[in-house]
Amino acid sequence: MDNRAYVVFANKDFTEFSPAVYLHWNGGPESIWAFLQEMDRRNIRGGDDLPYQVARFAHIVCDYFDGHEAGGLSVGIMPGPSKIGEYDTNHLPDEENGLYVIVRGKGEPVVRRFFGEDWVENNSDWKPELLAKHLYNGDKESSIKSAFLELRPNISSIG
Predict the structure, then answer these.
(1) pLDDT at 18
(2) Phi/psi of residue 77, nearest 5 degrees
(3) Fewest CB atoms within 10 Å of the CB: 62, 97, 125, 143?
């Protein structure tokens, strides 16, 4: 069963956007949070360099999916939105987890989600203190965090 979503990165004013990363699997907030935490562990800069951030995010997701065996149906890249509000990106179909719009800077990322025609502000399922405790983020062998520590144990020392 799939768990689809789209992810884009935005500047702090939500006026510029990266291309969209399509996730066929692991599109729930707990997975997105784990991938963003891995971006932090790898010291990937935030801010307004949106093409760089989306490229590194896609790289991290592909690292996870292809960590132990090659696969080809889990990730895609397509144009992102050009504005928020009137949401003119009909080329992004509605998915189970919607569209995540992420601003990374200092501190926790700012995340907005879009479902159909509505932006969801202050999502009850996007609380960093809860997401950090999810099994995908713990030290259990089956967690996303543990998979990255096994695949790339010294990555944060490289940058």
Answers:
(1) 94
(2) -125, 135
(3) 125
Spatial distance between the Cα atoms of 12 and 134, rounded to a whole number of angstroms: 27
Beta bridge partners of 6: 22, 99
Give the residue-averaged pLDDT of 76-103: 73
Burial per residue of 104-129, b for 16 or more beta-carbon CB atoms within 10 angstroms, e otherwise:
beeeebebbbbeeeeeeeeeeebeee
Distance (Å, rounded) from C-alpha 156 to C-alpha 17? 26
CB atoms within 10 A of CB 101: 23
- Among residues 130, 98, 128, which one has the least CA distance to residue 116? 98
Find, among 29, 35, 158, the residue nearest to 104 by Cα.
Answer: 35
What does pLDDT average to over the chain?
78
**For residue 159, what pLDDT is reported?**
47
